[in-house]
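We read letters as residues; the fold follows as tokens. A sample entry reads:
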Amino acid sequence: MLLRSAIKRFVRRPRIPDPRRPFSSSVIDSITTSIRPFPDYSPKKPSIRDSDLVHRVTTALKQRRSEPLHRVLSPFASRFRSDHLIWVLPHLRSDLAPVVSLLRWYRSRKNLIPTEAQAIAAHIAVASGHRGTARHLLCEGLASHKHFVEQVVYTYKYWCSDPSVFDLLFWAALEIDRIDEARNLFSHLVSYGIVVSVDVCNALLARLPVDDMLCVFVQFPVSGVQWNAKSYNIIIHGLCSIGKVGEAHRILLEMEEKGSVSPDVVSYSTLIDGYCCVGELQKAMELFDDMTTKGLKPNSFTYNSIITLLCKNGKVVEAERVLLGMVNHGVTPDTVVYTTMINGFCKNGNLPAVYRLVGEMKKSGLVPDAMTYTALIYGLSRSGKMAEAEQVFQEMLCKGLNPDEVTYTSLVDGYCKKGNMKDAFRLHNEMLQMGLIPNVVTYTALSDGLCKQGEVEAANELLHEMCAMGLELNLCTYNSLINGLCKSGNIDQAVKTMVDMEAAGISPDAYSYTTLMDAYCKAGEMDRAHSLLREMLDKGIQPSVVTFNVLMNGFCASGMLEDGKRLLGWMVEKNILPNATTYNSLMKQYCIDKNMKATTEIYRGMGAQGVMPDENTYNILIRGHCKARNMKEACYFHSELVKRGFHLRDSSYNALIKGLVRKKRLLEARKLFEEMRAVGLVADREIYNIFIDLNYGEGNVELTLELCDEALEKWHVESKTNETSKHGL
């Protein structure tokens, strides 16, 4: 059997029973071959004097109406013993209310109800049909008395004879976390011929570690338990929770093979979620198709598992297709599904899609929860839209929703990236006032913001504060610090930080090295940058394409084009696929040098490697060919750019227009000039002068004056901007 083989892999050695614990023998060993009868019980007889007191107490309880209980029973308090309590109970067994009142009164005087009386009261509650009261009494008994289970068994035959009391006792043991006692109770009851219901057995399964769960799942049916679909679902969930999704899948297949218990929507949905949690989308989709083929309708949880994985992998468009399929199949998305989608689009930076989904959500009558608002705030902050993020945050507070550390950290990070450290620290302090503890991500964002503003000492103080709070610097924190130091031009301190990082037992990654390489490249220290690449390779750290692009850009900016070409050749040789940025760096520099032959060679090599040109590629080629006065090639690349849906930069417009004017292709030049104005890009002065003269010569005075005003306005604004920058304001 698959379950038996699973047990061999998962189950630990059985626990050695504790002889001091009642019913402490192991589950299987304690099952006897013959059923023994329940003990014969009868309470001891009261004396004549005691009988009189019992009669008077019973009468007082039955005749009591609105008078307080302590006043009714006060005449008997000094003589009332635990025996009297047990003798009174048979006279009240048809009416639970006075039984409970009597117990409460007795406890107020003696602090503890006798074990036997507690067990009898629970039996009376079961016999009266008050299962909630019975369960409460059983929980109290288990928590207060060491041998309470023995008393429930001992008094069972006389007081109740309803086996459901043992279901309730089992539940009670689980509720107060007496798991071992519940398992021992199961085996003890089997010896009396009592098998508790599958529902309470399921409750036990759900509370066990996976290895014990599998053991019980095989052992209990020996005693007569017949597992149902919920039981199998608990096993499937348990295996999935520890990443053993393949084992869980085999359990589902066993259900189908046996046929006695068929998998339901929960079985499939749990397994689909398990595969999604380990990133196995294809297997999850195969199961999804399988369950629909069998006539089982996926629910919101099923769809959300798949949507979550797609969003996690950045495939939000595919996730939205799943969402559409969900709606088309009559499954209404809930807040969780919408929040997952919103979070996915926020991480992708697609805010229009986010706003659309929020609108759909509200239209469906769904109320955004704290997680939805947090996802929105994260997306807006990540996109630098801090005014909108703050507005959503205030709306969240107005609706009575409590922001958590993630909400605040999203805002803090957004303000830090904007360089608004005042608001970032305001929110940090607000977090502390709210009783929320800033996490490593919060401090990393603040540290990064301070470093980028050159406040390295303040950043270090903040990190010391973080360590004092018991938080440990992680890779992201160190990388943020290194990045901030590099941005502020303090490369030596950044190198020292990386040494400290390694001393703390945290290994630098490709990002750490790439950040330092970028700083060295911008400083023109190419030898140091190149040596860092060798160090990375020696340590077995795989450089990313960004690493090579940083180095390539450094070579090109330093005029070391041959080194750049060698780097490109080495990447191709080592099967490290360059991207468009890699090629663009080389082409840009060759274009600056008017070496269009070399530029064309690089462009062809790019195509040979299957790398698609991007918008920057086309703009570089257009400017380069215009500069080299190759207008035929420049116009060809312009048409390719338009065909692919890309846009010209202002420098490319300027280059094309000037080139066309030189070639006397004034109609095309005029068309590009008007297009440039329409999209809000500013042409340079030479081009304005060209078209002012051209229109004036054509007698078009109105347009000439319009262009003069426009030129004065645009170049006046630019002059003011340049003057401001010049004075450092």
The chain has 40 helices and no strands. Residues 1-225 form one domain. Residues 701-726 form the longest helix (26 residues).
